[in-house]
Amino acid sequence: MVEDGSMIRPRFHFTPPDGWLNDPNGLVYLDGEYHLFYQHHPNGLTWGPMHWGHAVSRDLLHWQHLPIALYPDEVGMIYSGSAVVDWSNTAGFGAGALVAVFTYHQADRESQHLAFSLDRGRTWNRYEGNPVLTPPLGVKDFRDPRVFWHVDHWVMCLAAGDTIRFFVSSELKSWTPSGEFGRCGSVEGVWETPDLFPLPVDGGPETRWVLTVGVGNGGPAGGSGTQYFVGQFDGSTFTSENPPETILWMDHGSDFYAPQSWNEEPHGRRVMLGWMNNWRYANTVPAETWRGMFSLPRELTLAITEQGVRLAQQPIREIEAHRGEHLHWQDQAIGPGENLLAGTRGGCLEILADLTPDLSVTRFGFRVRVGAEEATVIVCDMAARTLSVDRTRSGQVSFADGFAALHSAPLPMDGGEVNLRILLDRSSVEVFAGHGRVTLTESIFPAPESQGLDLFVEGGLLYIRQLEIYSLD
Ligand code: FRU
Question: CB of 175 closer than 6 A to ligand 1?
Answer without folding.
Answer: no
